[in-house]
């Protein structure tokens, strides 16, 4: 329930997601061509996966043009190419849908015309109808997020439980409930990954929930990066089967444990291979940090769950005997989770303003807050361990005897004062420092139960977080907008909207939807926050009502002000302004 609550809370804050950004098209948006183009190229900001249904060409009449499947371009993983048959005169809509490198679907549409523009803005109406629907079915979004959260939970229990059984509670595998827990997590991870493979097909294609059983969508998923990663995870989990069959024979752990550890590390690498860490700069470092993050989080949470199982199945003493070792393992895990989490957040966020100014930043802040609560609970558990099970046996026995003597005499033992963590020479006696065994056990288990509950909620939020565009990627694509310039509509695209060389594309449309005939256009950019005066951008005609820039090179990042001026006739000039973020 906590996992589902975490997913629901995150999903309620998450809008439609966009990851790979369309940087340019050939022909460009709104182009009026003299003859039918032989090819259509779409260039994206990152590598993409292409399927047979990635591109559709629709005539103004609403009929779909028959084409061969689109392909990638060798050596250019961010370009999709569609061969085009000879087209009749008129306006056409190109709708596209691809899967970005981090496994998320992105779609869009643009128009161009051959010979003449169809009347009534038919092309724009078709494009708007296509874009007005959701990127994916809501039921698929929710189901995929829940399955992803359950996958992470099963992964944490399996990895953390096996690690803890090998290195901390070395006799834990002798107990039936522990083995059942590990078998349940192994079975869940395998079956849920298979379900995720099917859901990815529906998710990427925009199909409904039953689409997960469509073999044609399975083949589409198989050809994508995320399909490969999910297949690798299935193989790694299956490769664990011999180890799972031998866990009831701990005496033979010496030879199967090393192979098990290698396979668990491989499983921990799969979320990064198919997620945000796999794209962008220094992706290999990011994927390594992601794997460390998953391993550390699994060791922390899986170990806690194993502790709960031991403590609630009549093996409390055995669980408590290894608490000093577990306490050190948990401390190291928390440190690694914190360091790698900070590194990942720094990489994905565009700046401090994005912490609360973007959906990704808000979800990340929620996750950090929950982890801090878990750390506070871990501190309470650590205090109980230090005040009971990490003490010298002689000192512990002396304190217990003194306490029993006071209780036998009808006196109450003194309560602990101050905040010292160890007995010292300032008046904090061993009696006030050492916790009675029953009290220490109660505090420890209460803290551990609460800690596990919070971490389950963290996993639910994480399941939504990985499906949300990072602020860095959300801001790194080209900028596009439609501006009202008097009675005209201006489609403006600035690509790639980063410092350095940029292209500005401008298409002017008349109120009826056709190209607008004007005398001249002028574009200028300014950055008042940096005291940069307006920079005139030379615009050249690239066809009827279509203009492109010459040499626009913003020197610094910031929210630039673009001013568009259109000379409609010798005495009428219309203008419009917009804020263009340059990163």
UniProtKB/TrEMBL annotation:
Entry keyword annotation includes Signal: yes
SUPFAM superfamilies reported in the protein's UniProt record: E set domains
Compartment(s) of residence: Cell membrane
Membrane-traversing stretches: 149-169, 181-206, 226-247, 259-279, 291-313, 325-343, 363-381, 448-466
Entry keyword set: Cell membrane, Copper, Membrane, Metal-binding, Signal, Transmembrane, Transmembrane helix
Domain Copper resistance protein D per the UniProt entry, residue ranges: 323-389
GO biological process: copper ion transport; response to copper ion
GO molecular function, one term: copper ion binding
GO cellular component annotations of the record: periplasmic space; plasma membrane
Segments forming domain CopC: 19-114
InterPro entries on file: CopC/D, CopC_dom, Cu-R_CopD_dom, Cu-Rt/internalin_Ig-like, Ig_E-set
Membrane topology recorded in Swiss-Prot or TrEMBL: Multi-pass membrane protein
Name of the featured protein: Unannotated protein
Protein species of origin: freshwater metagenome
Lineage of origin: unclassified sequences, metagenomes, ecological metagenomes
């Amino acid at each position: 329930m906590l996992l589902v609550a975490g997913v629901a809370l995150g999903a309620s804050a998450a809008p439609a997601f966009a990851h790979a950004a369309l940087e340019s098209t050939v022909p460009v948006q709104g182009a009026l061509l003299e003859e039918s183009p032989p090819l259509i190229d779409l260039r994206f900001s990152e590598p993409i996966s292409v399927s047979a249904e990635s591109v559709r060409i629709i005539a103004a009449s609403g009929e779909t043009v028959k084409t061969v499947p689109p392909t990638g371009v060798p050596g250019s993983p961010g370009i999709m190419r569609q061969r085009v048959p000879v087209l009749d005169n008129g306006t056409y809509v190109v709708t596209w849908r691809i899967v970005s490198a981090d496994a998320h679907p992105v779609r869009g549409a643009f128009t161009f015309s051959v010979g003449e523009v169809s009347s009534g803005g038919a092309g724009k109406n078709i494009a708007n109808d296509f874009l007005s629907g959701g990127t994916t079915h809501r039921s698929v979004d929710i189901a995929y997020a829940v399955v992803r959260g359950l996958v992470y939970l099963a992964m944490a229990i399996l990895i953390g439980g096996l690690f803890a059984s090998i290195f901390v509670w070395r006799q834990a595998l002798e107990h039936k409930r522990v083995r059942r827990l590990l078998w349940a997590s192994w079975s869940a991870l395998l079956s849920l990954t298979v379900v995720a493979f099917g859901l990815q097909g529906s998710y990427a294609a925009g199909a409904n929930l039953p689409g997960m059983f469509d073999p044609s969508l399975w083949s589409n998923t198989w050809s994508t990066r995320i399909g490969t990663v999910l297949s690798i995870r299935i193989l790694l989990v299956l490769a664990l089967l011999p180890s799972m069959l031998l866990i009831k024979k701990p005496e033979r752990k010496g030879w199967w444990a090393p192979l098990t550890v290698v396979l668990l590390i491989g499983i921990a690498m799969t979320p990064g291979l198919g997620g945000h860490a796999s794209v962008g700069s220094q992706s290999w470092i990011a994927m390594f940090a992601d794997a460390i993050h998953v391993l550390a989080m699994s060791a922390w949470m899986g170990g806690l769950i194993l502790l709960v199982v031991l403590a609630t199945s009549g093996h409390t003493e055995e669980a408590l005997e290894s608490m000093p070792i577990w306490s050190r393992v948990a401390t190291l895990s928390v440190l690694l989770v914190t360091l790698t989490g900070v590194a990942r957040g720094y990489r994905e966020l565009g700046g401090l303003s994005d912490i609360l100014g973007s959906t990704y930043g808000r979800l990340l802040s929620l996750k950090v807050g929950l982890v801090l609560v878990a750390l506070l609970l871990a501190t309470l558990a650590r205090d109980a361990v230090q005040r009971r099970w990490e003490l010298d046996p002689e000192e512990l026995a002396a304190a217990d005897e003194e306490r029993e003597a006071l209780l036998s005499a009808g006196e109450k033992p003194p309560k602990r004062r101050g905040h010292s963590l160890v007995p010292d020479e300032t008046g904090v006696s061993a009696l006030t420092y050492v916790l009675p065994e029953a009290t220490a056990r109660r505090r420890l288990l209460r803290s551990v139960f609460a800690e596990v509950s919070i971490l389950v909620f963290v996993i639910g939020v994480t399941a939504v977080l990985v499906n949300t565009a990072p602020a860095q990627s959300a801001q790194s694509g080209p900028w596009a907008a439609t501006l009202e310039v008097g009675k005209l509509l201006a489609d403006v695209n600035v690509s790639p909207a980063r410092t350095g060389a940029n292209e500005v594309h401008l298409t002017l449309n008349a109120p009826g939807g056709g190209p607008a005939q004007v005398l001249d256009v002028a574009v200028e950019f300014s950055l008042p926050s940096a005291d940069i005066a307006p920079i005139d951008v030379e615009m050249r005609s690239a066809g009827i009502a279509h203009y492109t820039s010459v040499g626009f090179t913003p020197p610094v990042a910031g929210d630039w002000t673009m001013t568009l001026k259109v000379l409609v006739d010798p005495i009428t000039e219309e203008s419009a302004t917009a804020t263009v973020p340059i990163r």
